[in-house]
């Protein structure tokens, strides 16, 4: 199983080579992996920003506790969840489902009503937490895809979402920066790449019932 070897290879890269950029064709593969991520009801209530503009990355660095990965990496990936869930989000999904799976829209009315009722029963506090959790599922696919492509990545929660929202104009779009990742290529002198992974042993992590 090559996936296991890919996951052994990856680590949270802290030192990126600023001279190396991820090729466009590999970016497309990463985008496809993220697009195919699972999400609740398949709604994908988030947007993903792929930032390669160096000046914008420099503006975001102070809001990222001055971490060098922001500017040294090839691209900064910002996962943004919708802070409100509206009926039109469900309607748009049903329209896609009808078109792609060749299902009459009338046959999807009950399913749509079920989803809307479930979502509308969530509190205004719970909804953004729910949509934010979906972005982590997409982040997992990004990290796995990068590992297979031998592209380094670092998932990051060390940033100020409010500042990101302001700099990127996210609030006006009903979005919030929930988690970020940097991708690129490790430097040869990053000693972390040589360290053995520290993980719980299987007998502690798993229980087969």
List the helices and strands and how they pair.
Layout: H1 2-9, H2 24-35, E1 46-51, H3 54-60, H4 69-72, E2 75-82, H5 87-101, H6 109-120, H7 126-148, E3 152-156, H8 161-168, E4 175-184, H9 202-205
Antiparallel strand pairs: 1-2, 2-4, 3-4
In short:
Belongs to the nitroreductase family. The chain is α+β, with helices and mostly antiparallel strands and 209 residues long.
Write a structural description.
The protein has 209 residues and is an alpha+beta fold. It has a single domain (2-85, 122-205), classed as NADH Oxidase, CATH 3.40.109.10. The protein has helices at 2-9, 24-35, 54-60, 69-72, 87-101, 109-120, 126-148, 161-168, 202-205, and strands at residues 46-51, 75-82, 152-156, 175-184. Strands 1-2-4-3 form a 4-stranded antiparallel β-sheet, with helices on both faces. It is globular, with a radius of gyration of 19 Å. The two termini are 25 Å apart. 28% of the residues are buried. The mean pLDDT is 97.
């Amino acid at each position: 199983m090559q996936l296991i070897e890919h996951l052994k290879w990856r680590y949270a890269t802290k030192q990126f080579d600023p001279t190396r950029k991820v090729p466009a064709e590999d970016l497309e593969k990463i985008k496809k992996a993220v697009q195919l991520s699972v999400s609740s009801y398949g709604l994908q209530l988030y947007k993903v920003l792929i930032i390669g503009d160096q000046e914008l990355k420099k503006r975001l660095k102070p809001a990222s506790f001055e971490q060098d990965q922001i500017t040294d990496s090839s691209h900064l990936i910002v996962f943004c969840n919708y802070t409100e869930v509206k009926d039109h989000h469900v309607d748009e999904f049903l329209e896609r489902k009808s078109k792609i799976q060749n299902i009459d829209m009338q046959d999807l009315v009950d399913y749509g009503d079920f989803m809307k009722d479930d979502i509308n029963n969530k509190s205004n506090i719970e909804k953004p937490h729910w949509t934010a959790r979906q972005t982590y599922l997409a982040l997992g696919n990004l990290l796995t895809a990068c590992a297979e492509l031998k592209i380094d990545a670092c998932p990051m929660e060390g940033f100020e979402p409010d500042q990101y929202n302001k700099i990127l104009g996210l609030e006006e779009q009903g979005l919030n920066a929930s988690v970020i990742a940097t991708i690129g290529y490790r430097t040869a002198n990053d000693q972390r790449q040589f360290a053995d992974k520290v993980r719980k042993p299987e007998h502690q992590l798993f229980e087969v019932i």
